[in-house]
Amino acid sequence: MPLSxxxxxxxxxxTQLREAGCVYAEEEAALLLETAGNEAELAAMVExxxxxxxxxQVLGWAAFCGLRILVDxxxxxxxxxxxxxxxxxxxxxxxxxxxxxxxxGSGAVGAxxxxxxxxxxxxxxxxxxxxxxxxxxxLPADRVLEGDLFDPLPSTLRGHVDLxxxxxxxxxxxxxxxxxxxxxxxxxRVALDGGGDGLDVxxxxxxxxxxxLRPGGRLLIETSVHQVDTATALFTAAGLVPDAVVSDDLDVxxxxxxxxxxxxxPVDPASCxxxxxxxA
Length: 280
What we know:
Layout: H1 10-19, H2 25-35, H3 39-50, H4 55-59, E1 61-64, E2 67-70, H5 83-92, E3 98-102, H6 108-116, E4 121-126, H7 129-138, E5 144-146, E6 161-166, H8 181-184, H9 200-209, E7 213-223, H10 228-237, E8 241-247, E9 252-258
Parallel strand pairs: 3-4, 3-6, 4-5, 6-7
Antiparallel strand pairs: 1-2, 7-9, 8-9
């Protein structure tokens, strides 16, 4: 049973968290008190948070699209901005969609789509074993596959996917040092590092997407507002008709590519290089 929130206890906890650099100390203190089962557990949770572990990994869950997504240590923490990716996918989903969630991490996007849509045939993939184990706690375990991008998907899905939803890493390698320590030090680099311009994984996904999407199917990828032009260009180079939606509130862009022609096979990733550098 969670601890009762004692008024005399909360200020000390808030002060401790604020001194450790927690910007939202009041909210975090309330969540820790709500989650901890006893004083010893609370003390251990506060110690981990003060040491820099992400709050969601300390709590064991993250709030996402109205759900509580289980989050294990060492797993990428779902961000609120990714709710824009879910919203776009829901808006574009046909009836009874076949959905693939690549780079699924904790499975947050897939779980939100299962909650929002009816009769979804969902598959989720991640290359990190710890993320796969976590996602299997949030999604039907038999639909969470371990491997590099499309590799573990059943071949029967080729040409039959309606929505390919991807929250791939898009931080340029030389900007990882600018990320908050709680992300940089406690989340897997493979979930953060997008390569030279941040779009290496996007390029690989777009190049192979035609072989998996049905005619009229869509690839949806989250990226930063500064990378929209480059992402749109690589979608075009991969044979997809691109569109982009920018959320000013969440400071994120969702780039969509639709299949309109006859699928002939995968595209050479080398042909998907950006037309110009990403803006600083």
